[in-house]
Amino acid sequence: MDAYTSPSTKPLYRGTQIVWYLLGLVEILLAFRFVLRLLGANPEAGFTSFVYGVTYIFAAPFLSVFQTTKVLVGSYFEWTTLLAMLVYWVIAFGIVRLLLIGKTVSTPEAAVKLDEQEKQ
């Protein structure tokens, strides 16, 4: 049985799609947060308030890592949002790599990969 006919291939593929999709949603929301803060959007406006509220949970662990740089009056370059985006991308990449460990491989393919790893 090869990777193309293995019953585990489709669920692994779907799992990786879900991880990348969720990362995309989080990254887009954080990008909106970054741009709104940079452009000095009114935090009382409905859309701005919604974006800040939804993204707070994702940005909160990083909010005290760096100071926010004031660009203009009411406009901020939020380094912590960029850090959050990077960290979530690294986590998603790690999850996808972990999922791919479950991919079916043939014995000859595994032997070749092990030989390649020994040479590194």
Report on this structure.
The structure is a single chain. With 120 residues, the protein is mostly helical. The chain has one domain (9-119). The chain has 4 helices and 2 strands; from the N terminus they run ααββαα. The protein has a two-stranded antiparallel sheet. A hairpin with a 2-residue loop joins strand 1 and strand 2 (75-77). The radius of gyration is 21 Å and the shape is elongated. The two termini are 29 Å apart. The relative contact order is 0.16. The mean pLDDT is 89.
Helical content class: 55-70%
Largest β sheet strand count, sense and barrel closure? 2 strands, antiparallel
Order of helices and strands: HHEEHH
Q: Classify the secondary structure makeup into a structural class.
A: mainly alpha
Total strand count, please?
2
Shape: elongated
- State the strand order across the main sheet: 1-2
Mean pLDDT: 89
Spans where pLDDT lies below 50 across 5 or more residues? none
Number of helices: 4
Based on CA atoms alone, the radius of gyration comes out at: 21 Å
**Strand percentage, roughly?**
5-15%
Please tell me the total number of domains. Answer: 1
The end-to-end distance, rounded to whole angstroms, is 29 Å
